């Protein structure tokens, strides 16, 4: 019997989690070590991320000046 169970580290506690072979992207699981809600974000290689993770945007108050027309200026290095 071939034991090719995919294994991926938990993004939260870092422990290896054994996954089932018929894994799909978007599959949700719970870390058996720390109970984090995780989601498969990649299959090859297998990669896990938090299921409740929001799309990565800049989270500095992006809901209050959206209709100001000034978000393309002041960019100096
Ligand atoms: Zn964990």
Quick structural gist:
With 77 residues, the chain is an all-beta fold. Helix content is 0%, strand content 27%.
Q: What is the H/E string?
A: EEEEE
Main sheet makeup: 3 strands, antiparallel
- List segments where confidence is low: pLDDT < 50 over at least 5 consecutive residues: none
Q: Strands across the major sheet, in which order?
A: 3-4-5
**Count of runs of 4 or more consecutive helical residues:** 0
Question: Would you give the CATH topology of one domain?
Answer: Rubrerythrin, domain 2
Q: Radius of gyration, Cα only, in angstroms?
A: 19 Å
How much of the residues is beta strand, in percent? 25-35%
Helix content: under 10%
- At CATH level 2, the architecture of one domain is Single Sheet
Number of strands: 5
| Overall body shape | elongated
> pLDDT average, as an integer?
82
N-to-C CA distance: 59 Å
